[in-house]
Amino acid sequence: MLDNSGKHESAAARKSNVNVIWVEFQKIRAIQHETGLDFKSAELLRRYRSAGGSKPLTGDQRLFCQKLEEKLADEKAEQALGRLDARPADIDWDALEAQRERQNGSAPSTNGRGNGSTQPFIDRGSRYSERAQATPPRQFKLTPFENIRFDPAPPYVVKGIVPRNGLVTVWGPPKCGKSFWTFDLAMHVALGWAYRDCKVEQGNVVYCAAEGGPGFANRVEAWRQRHLAQDHDPIPFYLLAMPLDLIGEHAALIAAIRAQAKGAPKLVVIDTLNRTLVGSENRPEDMSRFIRAADAVRVAFGCAVIVIHHCGVDGTRPRGHTSLAGADDAQIAVSRDKSGLIKIEVEHLKDGIPSKPLACRLEGVEIGACADGDAATSCVVVPADLSAASTKPRGASVSANQTRFLDILNDAVLDAPPQHKTTVNIPGGRTAVSREFLKTCCISSGWFDEGDSDNARRAKVSNMINALSGKRLIGASKIFVWPVS
Question: Mind listing the pLDDT tens digit for each residue in 239-276?
Fold first, then answer.
């Protein structure tokens, strides 16, 4: 037989190669026996443990193996802890292990794993034992019936809306204003201001803006300019504007809050579930892990945790697995109608009476000038009359196509860059968008017919603006368009 250089390979060399392959195969099988993995995953983990071997691992493969090793370590630690608790106390286990080593001629123990190099199993077992010894079992304290007493502390953060120590789901369709509303609510908690006649328990707030984080500072600035005096005391509101894996990083989040916030928070906001869940919203295992992570934050501080979440395809419930609705202590639905009226309804509240439905609107605020000289804007939440939700202006019946156009306009108001929106000379301080940007949004939303020319598109937008202006559903100038109530 020829080797790679064209020379004849000796029988001894062939035998040696076969032995190497056989040993490698046995090591992979040992990993399968240890972990229960399929052969391909076990082979990948074997290469990772041997620093890549002859075939270097890709970045994704290394990340997969790192996560796998962490999971295996956690499982082994739990098993080791159980074994330590179950061992009889009258046996000197160290002496027994030393005796077995002497009998084996100082050979490493196989721990029942069979042939092959097994020192890694001993090393990992030592680490698990140390970890198990360093983490004592939880102590459970039972409270006798006679010692169970009424707690006079208010059971809420916001009465009728947010319980004092619970998990709250705020859900609704994209761009319905749920994040704006939750931020407004959170600022009332930080300042201790009553919220729409609902009592509030003042306390620290931590807002994790994993979605829309870079632009969140504009919302804060708009709220500051609208509600706070130029000279005010420090406000116990803390913003985390970066991606977050709540399942994998909740312990680090808890540690960061303890180290940086001045006191335990009264409220922690997770915005949104989708951007903080590494996994699938539809898998019960992933959703259960997410709920446990949120509960870990809640228990660590005895606070309320609000999770902002999107709705399902039919818009009738929160998206994904139903375990979230079963686990939360309050569920709040947020919706927005065609006129821009935002409705907030507490759908269920454990151990409390839900508040009556609320309504609000988004109002544009010019917060300053960008580096290029254009105005920078954002929105604040302002109270509105809920009865307006069912009151249509005379002649306000709209077709399906007009309804879709109104949806596109409302989204454009939220999404428009500073150079394409303004509040200057717009009635009621509303935010208006340029006709050109609105046309671009109509294109991206597929509102036009395929094959329409640019002139035809411009004419369709102009005709629709004229029709809806006549029904007093929108306002318009030569350059800008805005929704009205």
Answer: 999 999 999 999 999 999 999 999 999 999 999 999 99
| CATH class held by domain 156-383 | alpha beta
Q: What does the mean pLDDT of the chain come to?
A: 81
* Topology (CATH level 3) of domain 392-483: Arc Repressor Mutant, subunit A (1.10.10)
Closest C-alpha among 357, 415, 365, 382 to residue 184 = 382
Q: How far does CA 144 lie from the centroid of its chain?
A: 39
Q: Write the DSSP assignment of 221-241 as a string of letters.
A: HHHHHHHS-SS-----EEEE-
Could you give the residue range(s) of every CATH 1.10.10 domain in the chain?
392-483
Extract the tokens encoding 476: 């318009």
- Report which of 304, 305, 312 is spatially closest to residue 270, judged by C-alpha positions: 305
Using only C-alpha atoms, the chain has a radius of gyration, in whole angstroms, of 31
Query: What angle, rounded to 10 degrees, do the helices at 216-227 and 178-191 form?
Result: 50
pLDDT tens by residue, 159-185: 999 999 999 999 998 889 999 999 999
Q: pLDDT value at position 249? A: 95
**Cβ contact 273:245 at 8 Å:** no
Please report the beta strands in 341-458, taking only residues with DSSP state E, as ranges in sequence order. 342-349, 358-369, 375-383, 421-422, 432-434
